[in-house]
Design a protein that fits this description.
- The protein is an alpha/beta fold.
- The strands form 2 sheets. Strands 2-3-1-4-8 form a 5-stranded parallel sheet, with helices on both faces. Strands 6-5-7 form a 3-stranded antiparallel sheet.
- It has 9 helices and 8 strands.
- The structure holds BIS(adenosine)-5'-pentaphosphate.
Length: 215
């Protein structure tokens, strides 16, 4: 099954994608994670990407489509894929369809998660993740069970994203409404869209995601 988790920054796409990976062995392809890895690569592309991401704007379609194409050419293409944070523009959506179809595959469903802006800002402001395994936490809604120790891998190193600040978040939200939200209508018209309320307990949302996917 190939699916997209669609929603504004902080909607819980990454959190829910990880649950599907754990339960169903699907592959999570997060363009945000790939770009953060590119940022630290020391290449010229990495430097350009870092500046764009810090401002909360979108990286070019060409770069992100290239990253996804590379992954689909590899092992990920043979398993069920969760697209997390991709596509974000109509051009990316068209490119994804072409990429999947060139491999005899197609997109099964798109789950749109909606959350109001105030809650989104609260979510990204409290987010931090394990520097070792990437498990995502929140200061109040998903704290560490044992202070200073990752529940998942036991690491004691944590990081906060440089774009998780109010100024960048305002640009990210505006960018979502302007460039990405048209995808809601795009996938509705294709009969692929399932919309769920992204506000609520993480485990309750996980049940809604599964039911939207028919799992
Ligand atoms: P990206 O990394 O994709 O960030 P994003 O879309 O802004 O989404 P987030 O990762 O912020 O949120 P999420 O929905 O995954 O929420 P999470 O589960 O972490 O992109 C970053 C940047 O890269 C972009 O701004 C852009 O510059 C660039 N980029 C990436 N893809 C691109 C593309 N395709 N094209 C062009 N540019 C691209 O949850 C957030 C927090 O809330 C966590 O702390 C979590 O614990 C908590 N939480 C989760 N669920 C709940 C819940 N139900 N209740 C309470 N708290 C919750």
């Amino acid at each position: 099954m190939n699916i997209i988790l669609l929603g504004p920054p902080g909607a819980g796409k990454g959190t829910q994608a990880r649950k599907l990976v754990d339960e169903y062995g699907m592959v999570q392809l997060s363009t945000g994670d790939m770009l953060r890895a590119a940022k630290t690569s020391g290449t010229e592309m990495g430097e350009r990407v870092a500046a764009v991401m810090a401002r909360g704007e979108l990286v070019t379609d060409e770069i992100v489509i290239g990253l996804i194409a590379e992954q689909l050419d590899g092992e990920a293409g043979d398993r069920g894929v969760i697209f997390d944070g991709f596509p974000r523009t109509l051009a990316q959506a068209d490119a994804l369809e072409a990429l999947l179809s060139s491999k005899g595959k197609s997109l099964d469903r798109v789950v749109e998660m909606s959350v109001d802006d105030e809650a989104l800002i609260a979510r990204v402001s409290g987010r931090f993740s394990c520097a070792s395994c990437g498990e995502v936490y929140h200061d109040t809604t998903k704290p560490l069970t044992k202070e200073g120790v990752c529940d998942n891998c036991g690491s004691t190193e944590f990081v906060r994203r440089s774009d998780d600040n109010e100024e960048s978040m305002r640009v990210r939200l505006m960018t979502y409404y302007r460039s990405t939200s048209p995808l809601i209508g795009y996938y509705y018209a294709k009969g692929k869209l399932q919309s769920i309320d992204g506000l609520g307990e993480i485990d309750e949302i996980a049940k809604d995601v599964k039911s939207a996917l028919g799992l």
